[in-house]
Amino acid sequence: MAPALTRSVPRVLFVTPEIHPLNKTGGLGDVSSALPAALRELDVDVRILIPGYPPVLAGLDNKRKIAEFPAQPPFPSSALLSACSSVSVPIFVIDCPALYQRSGGPYADTAGRAWPDNALRFGLLSRIAAILGSDISPLAWHPQVIHANDWQSGLAPAYLRFHQGERAASLMAIHNLAFQGVFPPATVTELALPAESFDLNGMEYYGNMSFLKAGLYYADHLATVSPTYAREIQTAPLGFGMEGLLARRHADITGIVNGIATDEWDPATDPALARNYTVGSLADKAVNKMAAQRLLGLTVDPHIPLFGVVGRFTHQKGYDLLPQIATQLTEIPAQLMILGSGDSALEQELTDIAKNHSGKIAVRIGFDEKLAHLIEAGADSFLMPSRFEPCGLNQMYSQRYGTPPLAHATGGLVDTIVDCTPASLMDGSATGFLFLDMTADGFLSAIRRVAVAYHDKPVWRALMQNGMARDYSWGPGAAAYRKIYSSLLPDSP
Ligand code: ADP
Prior knowledge:
Elements: E1 11-15, H1 27-41, E2 45-51, H2 54-59, E3 61-69, E4 78-84, E5 91-95, H3 97-100, H4 118-132, E6 145-149, H5 155-161, E7 169-174, E8 182-183, H6 187-190, E9 204-205, E10 208-210, H7 211-218, E11 221-224, H8 227-232, H9 243-248, E12 253-255, H10 285-296, E13 306-313, H11 321-331, E14 335-342, H12 344-356, E15 361-365, H13 369-378, E16 381-384, H14 394-400, E17 405-408, H15 411-416, H16 422-426, E18 433-435, H17 440-454, H18 457-469, H19 475-488
Parallel strand pairs: 1-2, 1-6, 2-5, 6-7, 7-11, 11-12, 13-14, 13-16, 14-15, 16-17, 17-18
Antiparallel strand pairs: 3-4, 4-5, 8-10, 9-10
Bound molecules: adenosine-5'-diphosphate.
């Protein structure tokens, strides 16, 4: 391997299954473009590794083949391309048409069924990451740290650990512990991992093998996306069965709150808005409220509190509470606009409540980046009743857009929202609302509390201004990751 560079310029391979704007399904896509860009600002030589799904290949310029990996059953042959991204972070793309060239999402087909060969698809991503991080890499550039993200790259630390020879250190970042990459036990040997790694002290997980557990067990260091979530996952139920392992490794876990792409999410310049605004021109925010009401078929009313929701319809996000409180919400009176997709029964239920409360509740099923921006700007308050939330991004977008969020007090939501109380209003820290009672009644009374505050103009103005003044840029988070990389470099104490 190349000699270690000085500790001041770590070389890092950031391994991810999705990246905004090429193929984002959630927050990891946002993080995968914004964090590497922020790390380069801090003089980290970070490069990205991602599978070559059709939108990734189509969306990148100057692609050049830089290595070939011959077939090694069960892995088909693949090539490594280098490319340039819009965020000026070098990208390595795994070109393997047999595994990645298909229509549908990165993890599932168009009907939402997980690809049956996901173990192989993400086994290859992990394996190539490990090859690039070891002394058998075909590249001249040798990363010192492999930064794996979520289960899809969870086998990279395992492949590295079992590599006989020089290898990079590994960092396993958990963006959501609920997704674990669980496959039958035979997958271990099928993917050319040693049979003995199928063990409680290894990647065995309740009789199956888990990509994520492999990462959590074999990585040199672990990170997750907020300090509160870092604590929560060390206990049941939010440890999802990994709490024992995580509690044993507590000294190796760092919680780092995600940042946001402050250039893309800026109400002063956002091209998706009906009118741009700043903290000094908050009256212009109202133009966006009117535009959203018009666009979505809500009654245009500048005075009624308008709540916004954007997200994946899964049990995690708690949107199943919305149909239970829809009528009472409209009677406050208040309006609600929802954008999202996922669980088909919930899609139907939410569509039905919109039909039954026409002009008061609007629902759009689908993924619509532009509408997501308009909702952040047009809503008065943003709802996040998540049962658990590793970090969450929308609550930070909404604060930046002068749209105080209301969220369940869990995970990163606790670390990024300051609940509105007389004390927090007094010291100028209040930015939104947190509620503890994760039931329909608890959520509804929290919504009522927000509506009361909304009509108290000085209070509401203070909440908007406090939120807009907060710094949610990636600077502090990137510096914290850099510190971890430095601690993992060979010459660190
Ligand atoms: P998660 O990663 O659990 O989905 P986050 O809050 O961390 O949740 O990030 C979600 C990201 O995906 C945000 O940028 C959000 O705006 C975006 N998003 C989710 N669903 C949609 C949708 N239907 N349309 C547009 N953007 C969406």
